[in-house]
Design brief:
single chain, 185 residues, alpha/beta, Rossmann fold, five-stranded mixed β-barrel, 5 helices, 36% helix
Amino acid sequence: MYIVADPAEISGIERDSLLVTRVGTLNCAFALIDALTTARIHGNLPSRLVNVGTAGALVDGLSGVFEISHVLKHDFSSDTIAAITGHPYPNGIDLDVSGLLPTAWLATGDSFIGDSVSRERISRQASLVDMEGYVVALAGQRFGIPVTLLKDVSDNADDKAAGTWTDALPASSRRLMEALEVLAL
């Protein structure tokens, strides 16, 4: 199953194979859980979840498509929650990667990162930032389905990001399709 937040992020995938979740973790969670629950009821869970989309670079000099090896939520304070409740709340999922593409750590949250203060803070945890990847990885974990996250750098998650994201979509879409071909997905 191919999963994308916005159809402009990828072209060339048949609509029947593409789940468009809309932007953000809650939209992604509801759309994905609905689709996977329906698939489980009908006995046809997908063999793999493949999330393709754009990401902001939290580190200067990054470009192109990355296969995500670790994903976390940047807006969830797991240490604080663990201290309050006395129970651990892990915040990170390791993913198997193919070895065919460059890898990166991804931070997921519900804010479009477009300022240097947020960029600096989140860059201590990951090199890329998006708004859906962690949800896809967690759903895959819960449903027992392998996950591949492919993210193309569309912007630098800085003060110019909101103005350049839309312009970057055609090239990002092309690079993501090429990465899918490399991975034979």
